[in-house]
């Protein structure tokens, strides 16, 4: 049974601007494992990766029904790619299954998360 669904759009230029401004966005949004992946990429792919994880975690919080804040923080959600390159939610506060999709254009990243009870 579907518990919740969330979608988000994030502009890549917004994330790039924040990175250039020296804001500690990667450290605020990414878990240590995600940060290791982020640091292995070049500048363009870093923006795409960070924008994707930021957007996905926003989508997750919408599906959870709380938004990012006191009940669900960025670092409580971890999204890593499996061996085939498919993003998977590997850590989360929800006690059911979580399904994720991340898609990019040159300007935007779009994400969707579906939270489901009764599946694992």
Automatic annotation (TrEMBL):
It catalyses: apo-[ACP] + CoA = holo-[ACP] + adenosine 3',5'-bisphosphate + H(+). Coiled coil: none annotated. InterPro entries: 4-PPantetheinyl_Trfase_dom, 4-PPantetheinyl_Trfase_dom_sf, ACPS, Ppantetheine-prot_Trfase_dom. It comes from the Bacteria. Pfam families: ACPS. Keywords: Cytoplasm, Fatty acid biosynthesis, Fatty acid metabolism, Lipid biosynthesis, Lipid metabolism, Magnesium, Metal-binding, Transferase. The keyword Cytoplasm applies. One of its GO terms (molecular function) is holo-[acyl-carrier-protein] synthase activity. Its cofactor is Mg(2+). It is found in: Cytoplasm. Mg(2+) binds at residues 8, 58. Residues 5-110 form the 4'-phosphopantetheinyl transferase domain. Its EC number is 2.7.8.7. It is an enzyme of class 2 (transferase). Transmembrane segments: none annotated. HAMAP family: AcpS (MF_00101). Belongs to the P-Pant transferase superfamily. AcpS family. Transfers the 4'-phosphopantetheine moiety from coenzyme A to a Ser of acyl-carrier-protein. This is Holo-[acyl-carrier-protein] synthase.
């Amino acid at each position: 049974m579907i518990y919740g669904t969330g979608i988000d759009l994030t502009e890549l230029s917004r994330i790039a601007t924040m990175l250039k401004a020296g804001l500690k966005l990667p450290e605020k949004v990414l878990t240590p494992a995600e940060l290791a992946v982020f640091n292995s990429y070049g500048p363009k792919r870093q923006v795409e990766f960070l924008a994707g994880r930021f957007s996905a975690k926003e989508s997750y919080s919408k599906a959870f029904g709380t938004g990012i804040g006191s009940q669900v923080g960025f670092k409580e959600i971890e999204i890593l790619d499996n061996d085939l390159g498919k993003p998977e939610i590997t850590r989360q506060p929800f006690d059911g299954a979580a399904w994720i999709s991340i898609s990019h254009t040159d300007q935007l990243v779009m994400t969707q998360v579906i939270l489901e009870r009764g599946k694992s």
